[in-house]
Amino acid sequence: MDVFVDGKRVIKDGSIIINSDKPISFIIGSMTFVFDFITNESGKRDVKQEHNGNTMVTHLINFQSTLGTGLTEQAQMATLGSGEKLYFSFAVHTISYNLRVFHYTWMIG
For 65, what's the count of Cα atoms within 13 Å in the CB-facing half-sphere? Predict the structure, then answer.
């Protein structure tokens, strides 16, 4: 069975229960995608990315809602060697200050 969202094929989806200060890493081909959670005093939610060679680090700042927080649109993360674009979407539910559920979907198209 193949699953499609907005014409993009879902290649991997799932949920991870994590301690809030632990980064999440996905390795796809020669690329590593790291997601980490930062809480600061501003309280303003933001997403910042850093590229370092074949590694992309995405900082999720102030993602701590018990109701859930995520991207409103799929984010293009890379272009694969085949020329297909790699997309990512996620939602985060914070159960308590140090426990989160990270739901994710990787797509190509």
Answer: 11
